Hints:
The structure is a single chain. The protein is an alpha+beta fold. It folds into three domains: 7-152, no CATH class; 157-337 and 491-616, Rossmann fold, CATH 3.40.50.200; 679-757, Immunoglobulin-like, CATH 2.60.40. It contains 14 helices and 38 strands. It has an eight-stranded mixed β-sheet with strand order 10-9-11-8-12-14-25-28, with helices on both faces. A six-stranded mixed β-sheet has the order 1-20-21-17-23-15. Strands 19-18-22-16-24 form a five-stranded antiparallel β-sheet, covered by helices on one side. A hairpin with a 4-residue loop joins β34 and β35. The longest helix is centred in the last third of the chain and has 18 residues, at 595-612. The termini are far apart.
Amino acid sequence: MGREISLFEKKCLTLRPNPKNKLTIMNKPLLIAGLGLLLSVPAFAQDFVQGKKWDAGIQYEMQRARGFASITQDPTLLYVSTPMLAPSVPVEIPVIIRTTDAKAVADFITRDGYTANVITENTLTARVPALYVERVAEIDEVLTINRSVQSQLFMEKARKDTGVDKIHAGTGLDTPYTGKGVVLGVIDQGFEYLHIGFLEADGETPRAKWVWDRSKSMSTKPKSSEEIRRGGDANGGGHATHVTNIAAGSKIEENNFYGVAPDAELIMVPSTFNHDEVLEDIKFIKEKAEEEGKPWVVNMSFGSQMGPHDGTSNYSQAAAALTKDGGAFLVAAMGNEGNDNLHSEWTFEEDGETVYINVDPGQSGSYFLTYLDVWGQSADGKKHLTVRPFVYNSGKFTYFDENSPAWKDCGQFLQGIDPNNHKEYYQYYINVSQMRQLCNIQNGNFGLEITGEAGVTIHSWLNPLSSAKECSYASVRGKNYMRGDNQFCAAEGGASIPTAIAVGSYNSSLTFWSEVNNREIYYSQIGDEGGISSFSSRGPLLDPTYPKPMISAPGAEVCSAISSYADGFSKTDDQICDIVKRGTRSYYYSAMQGTSMATPFVSGTICLWLQADPNLTYEDIQKVFRETARTDSYTGQMDENGWNRDTGYGKLDAYNGLKKVLEIKAGRGEGIHTVSNTFAPVTIYGGESNWRVLFNNDEDFADIRICSTGGQQVAYKHLTNVRTAQEETFDLGAMPAGVYLVNIQTARANLTKKVVVK
Length: 758
């Protein structure tokens, strides 16, 4: 007996081109238009998608719309699905479209009654019925179509393992650069919009110019500063508040936990991390900054390990295109999987050689889940692999093909040739608990038997969720099997974007003071103090053109603001390191650890540098890091370009980076009296004895005097024809301990700063 077609299917199957639309449609049938042909497809078949403009994720949604797949759309919510309990087919799916004319394609889609947003001249996002994708694909101007996927927050290790040293982001740096005139956008979860760290000096006015809560609904509207009220989004455990404060938290009297760029202009975006939404978020931040003629930075402390790891997806390419002009940067976390061997690689030496992947699934809550991604590296658009899934237990293989009930009810299986990089790929989202039940194998692991051709290389990745026991590669008795390592793990959705500044973490301290327990807490499991954090994900990207990571920054231990509106927030959490009271209101600061914390340190630093030179480019920033990053015994041996996969170019040096930025600006002929948003002639930087005076502009002359607080002059220099980035050093080590005044007088300014000699 034939299956009845739903009203939704009838609508999709009878779609015809709107005569008002002017784009060219290829002269062939738009959609399958026959019930008999529909029913001839095997139930729950997982097609190998080849020669299509769309990817296997969209093909899967098409199968669902036609009634041939019943798993829930969100792979993080895999569960038993029966015909009676099967999740409903989504009316519309989010897609990212690459095209030669994004506006024309968007107009075409919107005229048919669906939502489309132009991101760049060559990319748009849209929400359309799955079967409607076939119609869009017939447009000549459309190149490729990707299903939007979702990244995840890098926060698990931050909340579980560690505390924080009271890092003062500007320690030793008395500088006129505070991020003024630069827009900092943060796409994250867990904002407290009016935390004291995000208020102006009056303690009332929000520093955020815009808040756009995308986490609740795609249809929400941005709120301007006048519309922002107390509260925040409850997701993420306060992660966004912590991150934003590191980058740009306000100075307050009670503590030194203010941010690197405390005068940057804030835009807060609580996010779902769906890639189509994130592109819209970046575009929104870009547009608001450009309306004011200001440079901008977006902080992205999220990602996943599912994807090609080569920066070729529609999402990655569009995100990079949004920052193609100077004064625009994405700064992204590498990820927190440095301790987890989530990657594996194999090159077949002869035709017909076979290798096995065996996944110990770990456990997430009450479920065992496996997320496995396999990518061939032959970018010729051809199939070179034969892949057979199996359940493995005690040396025994139980194979099941695509028609097995195990596929129907325990996961998604996506396979095909990627339309962007033309590589062969296989993606699996498996509920192992259900797989074991269906196969009647109590402790079986999910695995793959892969047979390849000589010379073909494959890379695979696991993607763990927050869990007590993470997934991992396991051995296979008597067979060639792929072993795990921690390489090539730049996070998809963030760090893998080609021109995103990818940030790793080092341990600036291993202790913090718990305000709740009134004692110092010490953690050592993340490595040595000063060492690269063991959790920091390692590179490189499969495309070696872009260094991933590019730089490392303090990510452990960091104390910063935390949201009291977050789910799970507790006033008795031993990671709370400070409580600030203003009237009847309390504001909290807490310990976190992760590349999520290192990333905003770099975001804030780039805000400072953009204040000095709003026209900095990606190439400029790379040059600054390459030439000024600090190296030591912990950063490891560098290659011929001064880079390695663990630390990038080394550890962040904000001050020497600022010097290099000023030199770059002067080299463009922009160094004469043009520093943005500051009239201070110098930056003063110092330690225990050596103090350095860095000139921010060309000056005709400068008189530098160092005096005791009693007025006695202890040092003096007269300079002429001072050039931008010129530095003068004073050794105060022989001076008695105490407070001294450094006075710098130029033709346009007279500045006095206090310095302390210990």
